[in-house]
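Following up on my earlier thread - several people asked me to post the actual chain instead of describing it. Fair enough. Here it is, all 509 residues.
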Amino acid sequence: MGNQTKCQKFNRSAGILMAISSISSPYGIGTFGKAAYEFIDFVKNADHKYWQVLPLGPTGYGDSPYQTCSIYAGNPYYIDLDILVEEGLLTKSYVLSFDWGDDILENQSYVDYEKIFLSRFLVLATAFENFKSRQMENGCKEYDDFVALNNDWLEDYSLYMACKAYFGYSDWNKWDDEVKYREPAALLKYKAMLAKEIEFWEFCQFEFFKQWNKLKNYANEKGIEIIGDIPIYTALDSADVWVNTEIFQLDEKLEPTMVAGVPPDAFTSLGQKWGNPIYDWDAMEKDNFVWWKKRMEKSAQLYDVIRIDHFIGIVKYYTIPAQCPDARIGEYKIGPGKKLTDVINSAIKDKKIIAENLGVAIPEVEELLKENDYTVMEVLEFAFDGNSDNPHIPYNYEKNSVVYGGTHDNETLQGFFNERNDQELEYAYDYLGTRDKNLIVDHVFRAAYGSVANVVIFQVQDVLKLDNSARMNFPSTLGDNWKWRLRSEQLNETHSNYLKHLARIFGRK
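Reply from S.P.:
Thanks for posting it. Predicted structure:
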């Protein structure tokens, strides 16, 4: 199959990156509720075009949205409880009776994932019981239609979640062999035994997508487009691997033989061992990447723009023997390249792609990006090493790119400058035209907005000029990641006017 269509390009514009989990909320974590709609209004009032979110899937151990237990399901934490109250499925007093972990630490609010895990599903289970009572009396065509329309993934995911709870939340490849290996008789047994639990997980997905679709429609009506994020790999402990073991590099015990990561570089001497199972690309190619086609079709329904994380892995992917403690021992292998991007382009139709191309420059990657007209990424935090050929410095940008101040994996801009001494920042001072650390973030904004890059996106933490206490993720660590939250009223008209001014001055309205 030839390359059917080149990817759509961006007009000159700007956007803001904020995870759903970071939206202000009285219930411990951001949701699709009132504050999310208010954020869309904020983006609109700032004359910006895009809201970029992190992956929306259900998180597991470590709470990373890049290690989800399903590529299709949504995170039940994001279901807004006040909307369930409005629907008559919960009472406000019941919701308020739980501890959502909303303590203020150092004048900053963080997600307490342990408290969320212990409380959220109890509340959702109550909503489910009330929904079931109502459904038995009156039926619910919307719910029945949702289950039928999504049965290609929903049944497997809901069974996976029900079994996971039944087996004490252990990984699926630690379950009893009969269900671990998906023996047909065992699947029937567990579907019957866990029927109510399965239906609960279906209900959670029904509410998630009902709320998300309404929120996205509101954004689109306001002229705001949603940029979604697609991790290239899936987590081992996921419904996707459990159901599709034949397209991953697993041994006869269904343990990974090779896992994903990146080799050592200037930032880490051990490299990064992510631990995701590696695809069996040869097996995937036999049916012309149907798994990927379906995945991208679903993503194109969820988002207006799709960012593919670690795009390099489509062309050349780094494999690490699973038993190795770090990423020093590993090798690059050739990926499917154009064969897969042809399938992706066909699946997404008129949606746009941002290819996360950060890391080692590989000629074959550059060639494929240009062939598909995919929009590439630049990050200003990487720009200030003094090398004139640095691709992240604005005078080297191409139009078909999106420039970030920093991403979810980086320090905040204020944190970046606070943590470095004058000698380290000499080139940044010269380039940005100030040595004042209280002003320098504004100069970074002007450098980005004034560049030729078609799109500029900043994290909301950088709009607020917060230090590294607001950093979202420290790669290759477990602990204080994915926790930062916006406080109520923290983002205000002063900030939207500032962004509107930049959009007007630099032609990004």
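The two ends are 39 Å apart (CA to CA). That should answer part of your original question.
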